Amino acid sequence: MYRIRRLGAALAVLLGAGALLAPAGSAQAAGPAVELDVPKTAYLPKRGTSPTGGLRLWLAPQPGAGRATQSDVTLKVDASDLDSVARIRTRRECGDHAMGATDVVDCALGTLTRGKDNYPDAVYIEAVPGARLGSHGTIRYTFSAPGAEDVVFETDVRIEGPDLRPRKEKPREGDAPGASFGFKPQIRNAGAFPAQGFGLTITSPRSAFARQYSNCRYGPEGASTSADCWFDQRIEPGQAYEVVEPISVAVPDTMVNGSFTYKPYLQGMTGNAEEDPGATGTDPGLRPGTGPELKVRPVDTPADAFTDRFGLGEVRLHTSQTADLQVRADAIEGTTGSTAESTFHVRNAGPGRISGTSLRITVPEGLSVVAPTPPPDPDNELEWEWECSRIEERVYLCGPDNPLEPGDTWETTLEFRIDRNVRGARGLLEAVHDPERPANDPKKSNDSAPIEVRATGGPLVEPTEPNPKPASATGDSEGRDDSMLLVMAVVLGTVLGGGALAFALRARAARRKAVPEPTGPTGHGETSGPDET
Question: What is the pTM of this model?
Answer without folding.
Answer: 0.69
